[in-house]
Amino acid sequence: MWRFAGVSVDEGRGLIDAAFDAGVTLFDTADIYGFDGENGFGDAESLLGEVFAGAPGLRDRMVLATKGGITPPVPYDSSAAYLEKALDDSLRRLKTDRVDLYQIHRPDILAHPQEVAATLEKMVSSGKVRAVGVSNYTLAQTTALATMLSIPLATVQPEFSPLELDPITSGLLDLTMERDIAVLAWSPLGGGRIAEPGTARERAVAVALDAKANATGVSRTTAAYSWIMAHPAKVIPIVGTQNVGRIAEISDVHKVQWTRAEWYEVLVASRGEKLP
């Protein structure tokens, strides 16, 4: 978890406590969260920082991750100068002296991966960052950066859900298993399309998920989370809900055990055609 939107400090603390109660320990934010096209850049980080300020010790109970590199309206900048300043600004807003994970939010085509690697290494050696990762990188971009890093690439963050299969088909998940890179999946519910399917394909996926959900006594969203978590890459879904009841459902994922036949039924429904 996640981005805050339109909540107070007290409400933010309540969401974090609910997440802890559900077994969540990774909290993923970004400097761009809160930006609405005109203002709000850094708002989610600032709110989280205010929560930390009002609750000493809370920061140390979590794995804190943030992201940088999106610069509206440029739109991307992974130069050393920009990323180093972006990190310092994030730390200031978060009211902390380090983050556990810093991720390049989207690839900057004009930044050589060797330059990006050197910047990330400097962040770690400074003590401001414990581990580094990338978000929305292609397989080739991930491989190039990982090869040039002298430290491990700890995470990748692709869009992955029962409706978005690119991490499987592109080979990205195979790379993460080969290199022992953790996978953080954003939009694991397909941007709301799993809860409210609108196309024949989306409805077919919902039916397949419901079959498992009903048999296990969990919600469709829980079944969707557990479906991506069943992949041997040990995917971690990034849950974006700000509903305390939905947050509580996260712990239900461990009730769901997929057989191969059940798991592949969802995959076939998403593909819209039988497997070869």
From TrEMBL:
NADP-dependent oxidoreductase domain location: 7-263
Cellular component GO terms, alphabetical: cytosol
InterPro entries: AKR, AKR_Detox_Biosynth, Aldo/ket_reductase_CS, NAD(P)_OxRdtase_dom_sf, NADP_OxRdtase_dom
Name recorded for this polypeptide: Aldo/keto reductase
Alphabetized GO MF terms: oxidoreductase activity
Biological source species: Sphingomonas aliaeris
Entries under PANTHER family matching the protein: NADH-SPECIFIC METHYLGLYOXAL REDUCTASE-RELATED, OXIDOREDUCTASE YDHF
Gene3D superfamilies the record matches: NADP-dependent oxidoreductase domain (3.20.20.100)
A Pfam match: Aldo_ket_red
